[in-house]
Amino acid sequence: MRYKKYIQANEEEPIDNSTAKVILQAATELFMRQGYHSVTMRDIASHANVNLGLLPYHFTSKENLAKHVYLGLMDRIYRQIGTIDMSRVSNAEKIYITTLLSWKYVENSEEYSKFFYEFYESAGPFETPSKLFIQMSSTVILEHGLQIGREENELYFTVMKGAEWLLIQKRYKKEIQITLEEMLNILYSNYLYNIGLSDKIIAETIQNSLNFLKSLET
C-alpha cells in the first residue's frame, strides 16, 4: 500500500531530532507561503540553513516531508476544534463535526488550502487512519455494540478516504457542484452504514451534527 514507502509514516512517532525539527519548520513556512508544487528540497534546505543532503536523510523525499507538515497542520486544527464544548453530542456526531470543521478551516485559509489541495492531489488518499479517527470510531463501535474489528474498520476507513480524495479534488477543480456538507453526508453516511449503524441512527447523527454546527454560528 502507498503508506509503506514512508519510513516515518507513523503519527505516533514524534520528530525529536533538532535538525529534523528545523527542516520541518522551514518546510512548513515555505509550503504555507508558496504551496506544495513550487517548493523544492533545495529551497527548503536553503531556508533551514542546512546541507541539502540532510533532507533525504531525515525525510527520504519531498512527499514524505510534506506529509509530516500536513499532519502537523492537522494536529494544529484539531487542537483548535478540541476547545469547542462537545459534551452534548454523541461520539458519532463528534466525528462528523470535527471533520466538517477541519475542512472548513482549510478552505477558509488561503495559505492552508493552496498547500493542502496541491499536496492532497499529489500524494493521494492516506490509507492509515489518524490516531484521532481510530479513537473516536472505536468508541462509536463500542457504544453501539457493533460486531466489527479494527482491521475491518480500517478497511471501511480506506474506502471512505479514497472517495473523499476523489470528491475533494473534483470540488476544488470545480468539476462538480457540491457543498462540504453534502460531500460529508455522502461519505460519512456510507461509512456508518458499513460499520453497521441503521439508516435511522445515521440520519439522526447527521441532523444532530448539523444542528450543533448551526448553534455555533449564533
TrEMBL record:
Any coiled-coil regions, as ranges = none
Q: Which PROSITE patterns match?
A: HTH_TETR_2 (PS50977)
Enumerate the Pfam families for this protein.
TetR_N
A GO MF label: DNA binding
Gene3D superfamilies from the xrefs?
Answer: Tetracycline Repressor, domain 2
Q: Which residues bind DNA?
A: 40-59
Give all residue intervals belonging to the HTH tetR-type domain.
17-77
**Claim: Transcription regulation is one of the keywords in the record:** yes
Q: Which UniProt keywords apply?
A: DNA-binding, Transcription, Transcription regulation
Q: What highest taxon heads this organism's lineage?
A: Bacteria
State whether keyword Magnesium applies: no
**Stated name of the protein:** DNA-binding transcriptional regulator
